[in-house]
Amino acid sequence: MFTRRWFLGAMPSLYALARKNALAATSSPQEYHVSPQGNDANSGSRSRPLKTISAAAARALAGDVITVHEGIYRERVAPPRGGTSDERRIVFQAAPGERVEITGAEIIKGWKRWRGDAWKVTIPNSFFGAFNPYSDVIRGDWFDPKGRVHHTGAVYLNGEWLAEAANLDEVAGKVSGTPLWFGQVDEKATALCAQFPGADPNQEKVEINVRQTVFYPERTGIGYITVRGFILRCAATPWAPPTAEQIGLIGTHWSKGWIIENNVVNHSVCCGISLGKYGDQWDNTSANSAEGYVKTIERATQEGWSRERIGHHVVRNNTIAHCEQAGIVGSLGPVFSIVAGNTIHDIHVRQLFGGAEMAGIKFHAAIDVEISHNHIYKTSLGLWLDWMAQGTHVTGNAFHDNQNDLFVEVDHGPFLVDNNVFLSGTSLRVNSQGGAFAHNLLCGITHVTDFDSRMTPYMKPHSTEVAGYHDNPSGDLRFFNNLVAQAGDLSAFNQTRLPMQLDGNVFVGRAKPCAGEPEPLVKPDFDPEIRSVGVGDGIQLNITLDAAWAARTRRLVTSSLLGTTTIPNLPFERADGSPVRIDRDLTGKQRNPENPFPGPFEQPEGGKITVRAAAMTSAEPKS
């Protein structure tokens, strides 16, 4: 009887679903309009707009467009369905020229002065519903709380966040540096105390985190969605290790084919944009072990981790800032994606907590991923490629004012790093093999790990299928035609366990060559006069080059020159299988194929040059 009742009850919904899918395949695309002055009972036309983005998402089918008009939308958008292909996506877009903000925060009034510059407000727990960020503790694999408790809640004064205090006494004290807040939650209410020096919080814009995320599907597999032109802010995001579900302020949630472009993403307690892993009962149970992540990979394969079902996202031309774990994070989910033209800054700058996942971009399994023309600065680590960077192409990026610019960890390659500008005190941290570095400007020191015993995977070509596992000896790296200046130092590679290939590199000033390079061009008396200045969200680089460097013939960097990697035994090639040919410089200028100029700028005549932001960090939209 129970079985029959279930079956009869399911019939209408199955019929409705089939009918809906049929309509989606045959109906003309619709455009839904959303406005703060709208009503969710309206049709969604331009003259009768909806009030919430969520109401439009509930109606939209493959091929439809949701245009959101100027205003602040305090909601979490969780699309219930996606598109069916690149040609039939669901597009969420801000109306051209209009300022549209989606936020996970709510305005709070009713503050009462407590002590000095500290104020207090008490909020019933019913205000938060099922999720209260002020009792939600940050925890998980590879997380370091630094001896105290942290929560996903936050308090904002006029758009800028305060810092969570370790205890109430700190808030009662004198304001020193960033103002503080502290929360206490009991069975009925949440009490927040916060410092507002020189300000009345009831007269200013004071907000608190309420939602865990801002734009993130409830279910996996919601693909082919475009999110364009929004300001996305203030999320109580959880810690996002590679072994657990990775929830960002905006995230793709284990799907395929998203485009996230031209947005401003900021003030996420942990991660800004997530291209990462789904969640399951094994989340945060790895005991911080490599074996735990190997099991994660095995389970992900069972959950559909494949070229056909996961990845292929495009994240371009966004500004991502003020996230305390990562600007863009992704474990396994970023495969076959493009991350281009983004400005990423102020990531993990407060350092209230720590862990092994902090970076402007932190990817595990960047298989056939292009990371190009991004501007990354003021981060603990600019770009961190951890495990399975195979077919990864890092090109044309500008890094500066980071604690470290690029870290490649336990990757077997092949991965290619070319035409980048590394200006921070530490350019490279290398604990990998099978990589190639060509035509970069390296201004910082290099750290090299001699041997890492962890057994980490390498993949079949252009695939998520594991071909084998290997430990991580140093070496099997190629350095061709780089310009190494200031504190740049390749002598860390003087002794490696696997052979190195080095040729055509130039070392100026204090820069040190690797003993393995047969004839490095060393010019200790030449000053390239490198200066970088911020220009808006971009960068301007001034540098002096020497025409004499062109007197020595160098080889064009190609697949043939780079050869095959030692451990995977694979050639260097593009994501589509075509051969590598570094025949253009950072700005797109054609290189001399008979004798390319060293460094990221093809300027054989030498002299002083100024390269502005648009030339270095722009990503032209693709269809």
Please explain how this structure is put together:
The chain is mainly beta. It folds into three domains: 34-104 and 211-281 and 291-353, Pectate Lyase C-like, CATH 2.160.20.10; 107-208, Golgi alpha-mannosidase II (Immunoglobulin-like, Sandwich), CATH 2.60.40.1180; 366-528 and 557-583, 3 Solenoid (Pectate Lyase C-like), CATH 2.160.20. 9% of the residues lie in helices and 34% in strands. It has six helices and 50 strands. The protein has a 13-stranded parallel beta sheet with strand order 1-2-4-16-19-22-25-29-32-35-38-43-45, with helices on one face. The protein has a 13-stranded parallel beta sheet with strand order 3-5-17-20-23-26-30-33-36-39-44-46-47, with no helix packed on it. The protein has an eight-stranded parallel beta sheet with strand order 18-21-24-28-31-34-37-40, with no helix packed on it. A hairpin with a 3-residue loop joins strand 13 and strand 14 (189-195). The longest helix is centred in the first third of the chain and has 25 residues, at 2-26.
Q: Roughly how much helix do the residues carry, as a percent range?
A: under 10%
What is the 3D shape? globular
Number of helices: 6
Going by helix content, strand content and strand pairing, the class is: mainly beta
What's the architecture of the largest domain, going by CATH? 3 Solenoid
Determine the CATH topology of the largest domain.
Pectate Lyase C-like
Quaternary structure classification: single chain
Strand content: 25-35%
Q: What is the β-strand count?
A: 50
Task: Give the count of structural domains.
Answer: 3
